[in-house]
Amino acid sequence: MQSQDFKPSNGKDNQIVENKELSIWEALIPVVALIIMLFYNVFYAYGDSALDGSNQFILLMGGAIAAIVGFFNKVKFEQMIEEVAQNIKSTAGAILILLMVGALAGTWLISGIIPTMIYYGLQILNPTIFLASCVIICAIISVATGSSWTTSATVGIALVGIANALGISVGMTAGAILSGAYFGDKISPLSDTTNLAPAMAGTDLFTHIRYMLYTTVPTLTVTLIVFIIIGLNIDTSGTADTQSFLKAVEEAINVSPWLFLVPAVVIFLIVKKTPPLIALLIGTLLGAIAALIFQPNIVASMGGGTSLTFENGYKGIMNAITVDSAIATDNEALQDLFSAGGMYGMLKTIWLILCAMVFGGIMDGIGALSVISKALLKLFHTTFGLFASTVASCLTLNLTASDQYLAIVVPGKMYAKAFEDKGLAPENLSRTLEDSGTVTSVLIPWNTCGAYHSGVLGVDTLSYAGYAIFNWLSPFMTLLFAAFRIKIRMLTTSEKA
To answer: Are residues 140 and 234 in the same domain?
Structure first.
């Protein structure tokens, strides 16, 4: 076999190297090996804790297998490393955004912004439309926190308890809870998956969120309509007691509607298409100012003091931005909601991205992704076929690798070139990854998300899966949009160049 001529990168990101000597079967060896290793690692070895580091190393092992395939095809090691470097370079913006998201979450917690959202969200609970209220409450809280897991483990547990008191099916309730929780997880800029999908596809965070709204809002609307109809046709008894939660929030922070000004400013900046890093930085700084004004005792406590001074105020804000922070509360159910990881809390996701870029870079370098992309384009001649293939791949990864992150990372890297070759903008891919990878993970009993939420809520996965309407409807919605070419943005001539 002839060795490829190695040409240094011209600085353009995501340029996949073409290796004419590589067959489709050779190109698939690293992918199949990666899936098998991830399946064992998640399903048999580590379970929910696989993301703590073992999955990241498995991605590096997948890269090593890809390198071996490359060596057999006379691909130079320097060429592989060059592609890894270019891949990592392309994610620099996403990594900075992730760090800033962690910082924003910290200041929004200690300022009381997130707890205030929870406080007002709980007050919209109405027994006559209980299920629809569950969707709305969990959506609000998940958008505020960026975490479906935290929403489920806190307010979700309380709502299941209320459902029992009202005599409403816990399967229905869990489905409503998860529908709302994953809506928020999917569109919140604080969510790791919302940051991960555009990083894999090659677009930016806010473009990704805006583009997701086209499919996400109709899906949520249908979900709410179905739950309203169900709710109006079931009998309830008793009342929804949320007073203990509301009282715990009032005791922990100074609740004020003025705090909504901070997220309102950030939303305004997003609408005005302000660069994500600038919008998040402004949101972080405004959150810090709000913390000093509305929650001086909390800031002082985080800085190691009893009353606010310049020194402990500075330390309190910096601690919230950079490391773990928490608001003290006697209510155990609120403890997870009243904590944030700061920039430090984003390192696991950054670690995952970097290792995924190593795997993807070596696959680029040996020409495997080019071969796979060409095979996919031959197999699926239409735009709809490419979207359907992406959805199927995300579902397959959720079933086999049992992890939503990997259901975003692996298909995202595999299909990026195929979407580009079809002239499709990268936000089409990032939206599809979330519509089919993020939200369906909770429907699979052995997936980390399915196992977690089932255990936390105390409801069997199969009991709530049919009622998690938002989750199973999302992939159908994205396919519907693809079939009728609704909001499918094509690359412009300058973007192709």
So the answer is: yes
